[in-house]
Specification:
mainly alpha; Preprotein translocase SecY subunit; 2 domains; three-stranded antiparallel sheet; two-stranded antiparallel sheet; 16 helices; globular
């Protein structure tokens, strides 16, 4: 394996791409620690030292930003606005026929959809930054910290902070696109990978400090087993055989080949986890906005939300999270894999599944197989998502527990995809890949 990495750096073109990717990642990580203008960095650090932060409302956003959110840095919003915009544009294909037409137009249509995603990203970043600054001004972002996070709360200063955070999201989006075009791997995925991986040492150090080295070793062993299981499931797929009939075009015979449709066990990826977490985040966000900052008791409904839907260790929260993941997994797979479209394309080009008639019978067969394979995939996602909640109950670890949830799925998935891309480029040049 070390020799394979050596060959990667000996290839000039691939070495240039790898160094460019690393350089962009370094720039991104530097931006995480640059405080936004108008923010009292010292007060932020003192509030974080108190340890009384949001308690789960913005944990996923903070995780995906590499800790930049609670630092209120120029990259505080991270990649979440872009992720949300991408998901919205993808879902709008079902609602807006024009979006579906652009999706089917090929590269030109995809370019147009990408431009729409950029516009929506900036709009969402503007809304998110306004919300975060409102929480910071009231003190609820960092757990009702008495120290002023924004000493000067004049309109001009607040506007400057909002513009800075929005511009930071635009820069992150540009950095990700540069990696995709000139580097190795998917740029935005690698930035998320970097943000999550950067939180692993701190999370593991906290576990060792709070619970001792015995628990630390046990967590590492369990984490290794979970990683192996995630790799196995992420690589698993159901291959549906497809044959193409021979056709005569002029004097040439076309077709007659055999292939397959790969249906992954986890076709939805981490999207159901993001959907479920975002939906469960809304009650906590509403409770924060309605929590008095002067120390008076909050309303009864705010106390109920804080007790049952914020901390993440209540059975009601766990049950809702589990069921939402199952529901969103089926919902997202049904949108992204259109069995009617796949069956229509197969019939158009003379393809058929052995033993199944073309057209509607093929569509029904694909739907049947897809529904059956989505169930274990959804249960797998739900079980992985429960690991941080179990860690929260057993070890008093926070929601950013490294070996579970969206963090582990993203790290393993992006790592596998990037290694495969490097391997493919090595095989193009040396006929010997990174993987054996």
């Amino acid at each position: 394996m070390l020799g394979a990495f050596g060959r990667a750096f000996k290839t000039p073109d691939l070495r240039r791409k790898l160094l460019f990717t690393v350089g962009i990642i370094v720039i991104y990580r530097i931006g995480v620690f640059i405080p936004a203008p108008g923010i009292s960095y010292g007060n932020v650090q003192q509030c974080l030292a108190l340890g009384n932060t949001t308690g789960g409302v913005y944990d996923m956003v903070n995780l995906f930003s590499g800790g930049a959110l609670l630092q209120l840095s120029i990259f505080a919003l991270g990649v979440m606005p872009y992720i949300t915009a991408s998901i919205i544009v993808q879902l709008l294909r079902v609602v807006i026929p024009r979006f579906q037409e652009l999706h089917e137009e090929g590269a030109q249509g995809q370019t147009k959809l990408t431009q729409y995603t950029r516009y929506l990203t900036i709009l969402l970043a503007l809304l998110n930054s306004t919300t975060i600054i409102s929480l910071a001004r009231s003190g609820t972002l960092l757990g009702n910290c008495p120290l002023p996070i924004i000493p000067d709360d004049s309109f001009i200063n607040i506007l400057l902070i909002v513009i800075t955070l929005t511009a930071g999201t635009g820069v992150i989006m540009w950095l990700g696109e540069q990696i995709t075009e000139k580097g190795v791997g998917n740029g935005m995925s690698l930035l998320i990978f970097t943000s999550i991986a950067a939180s692993f040492p701190t999370a593991m150090g906290n576990i060792a400090t709070a619970n001792g080295w015995g628990i630390f070793a046990a967590v590492c062993a369990v984490g290794l087993l979970v990683i192996i299981a995630v790799v196995f499931v992420e690589q698993s797929q159901r291959r549906i055989p497809v044959q193409y009939a021979k056709r005569m075009i002029g004097r040439r015979t076309i077709g007659g080949t055999s292939t397959y449709i790969p249906l992954k066990v986890n076709m939805a990826g981490v999207i159901p986890l993001i959907f479920a977490s975002s939906l469960l985040m809304i009650p906590g966000l509403l409770a924060q906005f309605n929590t008095p900052s002067d120390g008076t008791p909050p309303p009864a409904w705010v106390s109920w939300i804080n007790d049952y839907l914020v901390k993440g260790d209540h059975p009601l929260y766990i049950a809702l999270y589990f069921l939402l993941i199952l529901g969103f997994a089926y919902f997202y797979v049904s949108i992204t894999f259109n069995t009617e479209e796949v069956a229509g394309n197969m019939k158009k080009y003379g393809g058929f599944i052995p033993g199944v008639r073309a057209g509607k019978p093929t569509e029904r067969y694909l739907t049947y197989v897809l529904n059956r394979i989505t169930l274990p995939g959804a249960l797998y996602l739900a079980v992985i998502a429960m690991i941080p909640l179990v860690a929260l109950i057993l070890f008093n670890a926070n929601q950013n527990f490294p070996f579970g949830g969206a963090s582990l799925l993203i790290v393993v998935g992006v790592g596998l995809d990037t290694v495969k891309q490097i391997d493919a480029q090595l095989q193009q040049r040396n006929y010997e890949g990174l993987l054996r």
